[in-house]
Each structure stands twice: as structure tokens, then as C-alpha cells.
Amino acid sequence: MDLRELEYFVAIAHQQNITHAAQKLYVSQPTLTKFLQRLEQRVGLALFERKGGSMELTYAGERYLAWAVDMLQRKEELDSELAAIRQDKAGKLRVGIPSVRCSVAMPKVVPAFSKLYPQVELSIVEQDSQQLEQALVQGELDLNFYNLSKYCLLLEYQILGAEPVYAVVACTQQLESGQRDENGCPVVSLGQLAHLPFLLQKPSQRQGEYLYNLMAMQGVSPRKILETSNIRAAVSMAAGGYGVAFISRSFLDYLKELGPFDAYRLKDAGQMQYVAAWRKGEALPQYAKEFIRLMACI
Predict the structure, then answer these.
(1) Does the pLDDT at position 131 exceed 80?
(2) Residue 149, Cβ neighbours under 10 Å: how many?
(3) Name one GO cellular component term (predicted).
């Protein structure tokens, strides 16, 4: 059985006449007659009853027609899906992103992306940046979004933005500052915070790595360090009066619900670059590029 045979059979069933079906299919009547004879011989059943100039389906013919129509419809669906893939409208996209940034970005990005590409199967993986990078290099993910600490030669990057780092402390902590940033937040040095416990992300997380490197460059040794992979927990503890947590600018508004707290921009701390990353040498489909564009707008 091939698709052409199915099309021949469906045409005969719909036209109920060999001559009319042959005209519709642009084949000769003898060709279609021989086709039907061979088909009925092969299945060992009569599929039509000949009544004058009309051909009516037998029960076996009705069942054959149902299967033929279903298979032809599946073929159309497959052709449509393959055409969408060729046009970069369908496929799979596996995205890796740290949990806090995921909480901030995905509620905005995923609905918009799904409207643009409803045929793209999207999956989101939340892990720390080091694990995400390994998964991306090994082909387990297609696209990552995280802070960039150092370049991996196996990956390509698109910089989506750069963010300053802020220290978060309880409102009861009065820190002296004679300077304010462009957002009106007071500015303090890392050394001014060293009398407080530092609530730091682990070095495998980009923000944790960034802070540890900054401490080493500035020669700052805090009184105590408590590591946690959970940024929300760190901010909540700082707001509650235990130590100082560190977050990038885009998370300040998002984490205000954990407050009240005061935020101070770190002096001489530079900015953390936020990037999209994918494997070097791999061409991104259009829907992946659109996902990057949406993430850049957050």
C-alpha cells in the first residue's frame, strides 16, 4: 500500500464512478480499473458493489476508506509540520536559566513566545550557571541565559545587558554614604560592609563567583560568610537583620516583597554582563533568535 493507492481509492469512493474518478486524478480509466482489480485481489474482498453506472462501498470498503482518509490526513499533517520546521516555525527549544532570573523573566517571555511560535516545544531547565554551561556544551540544552564571568571557547554569546551589584541590608543598619547612583541609591564600598556577615551565593553561581573575585581584588575579608544557593533566602535574611546580601539591579524591584530593606550600590564593583549563550558553530533557528530578543526586553 502506498499513498497513491490510497488517493486512487478515496477518489473512486467519493466519485462513485471509475470514469469520473479517473478524470479527477488525470489518469486513464483502464489504469484505474486495473488498480481496483489488483487491490481487491490483494485484500481478498470486494470493496465496491457495482450497481449500474454507480459504485457503492461494501462494509469492507467503508473500513478501507476510513483508514485511507485517516492516513492521508496524517500525511497532510506531517507535510504541514515539516514545512513549518523548514520555515523555522516548529521544533524544540531547551532553555537553561538560573532560578531567580527564571522567576523574573519566564512569566513575561513564555506567553509572548508561545503566541508567536505555538508549534515550538519549549522546555525550561533551572540550575546554577556552572551546571547550565556544562549541559549546554554537552548538547543537553540549546540556549542559556546567565551572568557571564569568563568566556568558554566552545560557546558563542550575545550580551543582553550589564547590571551593577547592590548590597541589601535591614533598614535598621545605618551605613554612611556621601554618594548616590543614577537611580538615587546610596553608594558604599565593599569594605564598609565587612563588619557584617556576607550572605553569598556559591562560587559555582556566577554572582557568587563575581563577589568572591571582587573581595579578592579589593582585599576585603568579611567577619563571617554564609553560603546559600537561594538568593531569595539570602535577601530575606538580610532584610531580617542578619548580614548583607548581594543582588543585581534587575532583581531589586522583584525582591522588594521580601523587605523592607535598604539597597546600596557597590562602589568600584563594575557591572555583571548578562548574556545569551549557545554552542559555537551552530546556526540558531529563527524562533531561538526571537526568544533571545524577548529576553533582552526584560
Answers:
(1) yes
(2) 19
(3) cytosol
